[in-house]
Design goal:
- The protein is an alpha+beta fold and about 160 residues long.
- The protein has helices at about 45-60, 130-150; strands at about 10-15, 15-25, 65-80, 85-95, 100-110, 115-125.
- Strand 4 and strand 5 (about 100-110) form a beta hairpin.
- It is globular.
- The termini are far apart.
Amino acid sequence: MRYILIDRITAYESGKMLKAIKNVTFSDGVGRPHGANWMPFPAAFVMESMAQAAGLLVAMTIDYKAQPVLAKVQQMRVYGRAKPGDRLDVFAGLEDIQEAGARLYVKSSRSGVPIAEATVFLSLLSFEDLGMEKASKHRRMLRSVVANLAPEWFCEVQKVPVATL
C-alpha cells in the first residue's frame, strides 16, 4: 500500500466485521484547495480507506494466507465530503468469502452522518505460489500493519497513573 488510510482498528470480529478510524489531516497531502478555508479529502481516498478496512478484515480472517486486492467496487454512494480535522468511522462487514475472493459491505461516517458506502469485491492472491520464504515475509508484513493499527492486541498495555492537578 502506498498510503495507509486507516489510523486505528477499534473493533474486530473474525469472519464478520472490522471497525476502524481515519483521522483526516492536512498532512495526508491528497486534497486540493477548495474554497477559502479547507481542502476536501477526495471520495476516492474515502473509498480506499474503506477498501483497506475490508482487506484487513479478510487478511485477519484467513490468518494472512493471501493478499486481498481490490477487484471491484459496486454501487458506491457518496453522501458528503470529509475535510482535515474530521474523524471518519470506517466499517467493513464480510458478506461472503471463498478461496478466490470475498464480498464485503463497507461504509464510512463522520459523527454518525454517512459519508460513503459501497459493496466491494476483493481477490485473494495466495502467497503459496511465492515459495516458503517470500510467503513468510508477506505474512509478517501484513501482521505488522495490523500490529501498528491495533497495538493493544499484540502487547500488554501499560497503565500509567494520571497525576491529579
